[in-house]
Amino acid sequence: MNYDDETLMAYADGELDEAQSAAIAAAMERDPALARRVERHRALRAEVADAFASVLDQPVPERLVAAAGGVSSVSGGSPPQRRAEVLQFPARAARPPAGAWRAREWGAVAASLALGMLISLRLFAPPEPLMTPRDGALVARGALATALDRQLAGAQQETEPIRIGLTFRSHDGNYCRSFALRDAGTAGLACRVAGEWRIPVTAAAPGDTGDVRQAAAPPPAVLREVEARISGEPLDAAAEKNAQLEGWVIDRP
Question: How many CB atoms lie within 10 A of CB 71?
């Protein structure tokens, strides 16, 4: 029986029922080519998982734990310090009536109001979206588009809010990059098409974002999209850097 890639991906992911899995296992014993196809899916899955294997599992520093509890930690094992007592200062004597404000005082008030308005706009303005719909598809915007343009998987920090996974060439001749949004608990795949990063798939990523742990592998939906699109092997660090320098554009013959 001829199995399609979707079925073999599901078999490699362990998502088929017992009867289907047994049938494919038996077919693999009879057909070496089928066995090689399954092994390719398994190898690719392992490679994708390795790209997302950075797990932030560091303990919270004691000073932050102490600060959260309202206690200051002192080195050497000494007991926590008590909070300072609040003392009531005596009231000031009555002040003489203030004179009329001059231009300097009014100018200071105006400057303070303008600064306050600017801070309020920045604090309460809605954040720039990371994805927006366009022509029936999602397109990367803001910090996500910047990360896809500039961030290299081999050089990024573990504390980056956006993590880049694999970079590869797709069957249709474009560069694609997998990503994970740590704070949003979301992973996805973006492909460079006509000068922008189009996102064919996103999915909730496993992991506890409350303690800033990152998933060790992308969700199955993202993994399957990678397997369906990838042509050849994922880019290594040098090839990824070259692709970035070329503006993520593949020269057509």
Answer: 14
The domain segmentation of the chain, as residue ranges, is 5-42, 128-245
Q: How far apart are alpha carbons 119 and 131 in whole angstroms?
A: 26
Tokens of 228: 């369906």
Q: Is 0.70 surpassed by the pTM of this model?
A: no
Between 220-229 and 5-12, two packed helices, what is the crossing angle to 10 degrees? 140
Q: Which helix (H) or strand (E) holds 10?
A: helix 5-12
36-48 pLDDT, tens digit per residue, is 887 877 777 776 6
Instruction: Give exposure, 157-175, as e/b (b: 16+ Cβ within 10 Å).
Output: eeeeebbbbbbbbbeeebb
At 137-174, the pLDDT tens digits run: 899 999 999 999 999 988 888 788 999 999 999 999 99
Give the list of residues 6+ apart from residue 223 with CB closer than 8 angstroms, or none.
13, 45, 48, 217
Least confident of 108-112, 129-133, 158-162, 197-201: 108-112
Element at 213 (helix H, strand E):
none
